Amino acid sequence: MPPPRPPLAAEPPRVGPALAALREQRALSLDELSRRAGVSKSMLSQIERSQANPTVAVVWRLANALGVPLAELLDDAPRSEPP
To answer: Is this prediction's pTM over 0.85?
Structure first.
């Protein structure tokens, strides 16, 4: 018998709070993160305010620009320290 699966999340992960915290830890402006990730400032602002749900591709670009694993942005509580 296969092992039981964990319950599915009722809501998508909240990327915004994790993104805002990681950006602030690294002292990055919206302009700088936008440039590094190739994501518009308005989209970053909407994501941080939980007004937009980014695609996996956008979360991947943000994680790379911030130097963190993709999963770090999908958690509600970031764990990385600034470099």
So the answer is: no
